[in-house]
Specification:
Mean pLDDT: 91
Bound molecules: pyridoxal-5'-phosphate
CATH architecture of the largest domain: 3-Layer(aba) Sandwich
Oligomer: single chain
Low-confidence stretches: 451-463
CATH topology of the largest domain: Aspartate Aminotransferase, domain 2
Structural class: alpha/beta
Length: about 475
């Protein structure tokens, strides 16, 4: 599937939507064209009913272990979002209070990430926009550092990074220098090696990206070890390479569950951090955050000035207009949950993830490569003699309503096909046990012919 949509063929172009006969009195006689703007208006109830009927075909978010995105918020948060949908983030003249809430969120996150007090940051549409802005800041700072002497800029990233980083490199013409993820020892050992990182750095390295944690496996890169290796590189060869931490998931997990882990601005080498508010920040899409350790890390020529909305404004974003609703929702969660509330939510996700990973390990034929103890997410490989591939298992689970994606780990890991399980708020022990039961039945199906699996309907679990 692609986010690019081609023009439909002529026959389909003409096709009308199939509208429930109960609404036929509310629509015009010619029906409702599928791909063409209808000639005239229809009753709002009919429009609502038609679209709702179509959206019913989307998956059940509660049984989706594929996504990191938030799919449930409290009714009070929904109410607030409804009230703020019309507020345009970019219009700080008209909506100074939304801007104020954004500033409070940036401050709370900076402190959570141990910024010593000189930090600067902003909200974004998500970690991908945050990565673009963080990457651009590194590119501009590199250019300033190098004067006219620079060659082609490069960015050192692991093969475990999210697609937003190779995307950054492609879009802004930066060479990606891939550091491999190798499986060395223990089950959770799917991380960047500091020596692999440092050996790829030179004078035209704009920065290094470490991941907290990997979208593929949930594992955290050893940020402190990478920072120490970059410190040694500076001491020995005079190369000052900034470290950016992509904490899309971990930025809202590690401060609560691994408070002793120094991955953030406690390390002077870490110059910038991004996180997704709409993942473990527990907010509906779309909101992300990027924070720099020091305002000086953000080159001034990236910030543009405009007075198009009346009054002078500074802007450092890729887009211009964006709804303020997710910002209000993020602030709602901060007020509503506080530190202890976030910790309780993430702790429960992690407990459920560990329980699920341990249960899966006990089924036989499936080997968890991580255990859910960092991000509450883990990857599972299938044994060669299982009787079906990871992709077939994913298909079979899909038929039972569960979305568990199958994909390949990167090249240095021999392209291991794995299944990934992400545990989010609302995925309870009961649902996990139901999934384990379905997995057990499915494995029985693929292992031996004969016994049809018994199963009760899943509807009782839906919210
Ligand atoms: C999800 C994710 C991203 C992209 O985040 P969006 O907020 O969806 O743009 C980037 N990096 C990592 C590690 C992620 O898990």
């Amino acid at each position: 599937m692609s986010n690019l949509h081609r023009r439909a063929g002529a026959d389909r172009h003409a096709a009308a939507l199939h509208v429930n006969p109960l609404y036929s009195g509310l629509i015009s006689e010619g029906g409702v064209p599928r791909y063409r703007l209808p000639d005239g208006p229809m009753h709002p109830d009919a429009a609502l009913a038609i679209i709702r009927d179509e959206l019913m075909l989307d998956g059940n978010a509660r049984l989706n272990l594929a996504t990191f995105s938030t799919t449930w918020m409290e009714p009070q948060a929904k109410e607030l979002i409804g009230e703020c949908l019309d507020r345009n983030m970019v219009d700080r003249e008209e909506y100074p209070q939304v801007a104020e809430l954004e500033g409070r969120c940036v401050n709370m996150l900076s402190e959570l990430w141990h910024d010593p007090g000189q930090g600067i940051g902003c909200s974004t549409a998500g970690s991908s926009e945050a990565a673009m802005l963080g990457g651009l800041a590194m590119k501009f700072a590199w250019r300033r550092r190098r004067g006219g002497a620079g060659g082609r800029p490069n960015l050192v990233i692991g093969t475990n990074t999210h697609v937003c980083w190779p995307k950054f490199c492609r879009y802004w013409d930066v060479e990606p220098r891939w550091a491999p993820i190798r499986r060395r020892g223990g089950p959770s050992d799917l991380r960047l090696d500091p020596e692999d990182v440092v050996s790829r750095c030179d004078a035209d390295t704009i920065g290094v990206v470490a991941v907290l944690g990997s979208t593929q496996t949930g594992a955290y890169d050893p940020v402190a070890d990478i920072a120490a290796a970059l410190d040694r590189l500076e001491a020995e060869r005079g190369l000052d390479v900034p470290l950016h931490v992509d904490a899309a998931g971990g930025g809202f997990v590690a401060p609560f569950l691994q408070p002793g882990l120094a991955w953030d601005f406690r390390l002077p080498r870490v110059r910038s951090i991004n996180a997704s508010g709409h993942k473990f920040g527990l907010v509906y899409p779309a909101v992300g955050w990027v924070v720099w350790q020091d305002a000086a890390d953000l080159p001034g020529d990236l910030v543009l000035h405009t007075d198009v909305l009346g009054g002078p404004q500074e802007t450092f974003t890729l887009n211009f207009s964006r709804s303020g609703a997710p910002i209000a929702a993020q602030y709602y969660n901060f007020l509503r949950l506080g530190f202890d509330g976030y910790r309780a939510v993430q702790r429960t996700c992690q407990d459920v993830a560990r329980h699920l990973a341990a249960g899966i390990a006990g089924l036989g034929g499936l080997e968890p490569l991580t255990d859910g103890g960092e991000l509450p997410a883990f990857a599972v490989r299938t044994a060669a003699d299982l009787g079906c591939t990871a992709h077939e298992l994913s298909d079979r689970l899909r038929r039972r309503g569960w979305q568990v994606p199958a994909y390949h780990l990167p090249p240095a890991l021999e392209e291991i096909p794995v299944l990934r399980f992400v545990v989010r708020n609302g995925f309870s022990f009961d649902i996990a046990d139901r999934l384990l039961a379905d997995l057990r039945d499915t494995l029985r199906e693929v292992r031996g012919p004969g016994r049809p699996a018994s199963r009760q309907p899943l509807t009782a679990l839906t919210r």
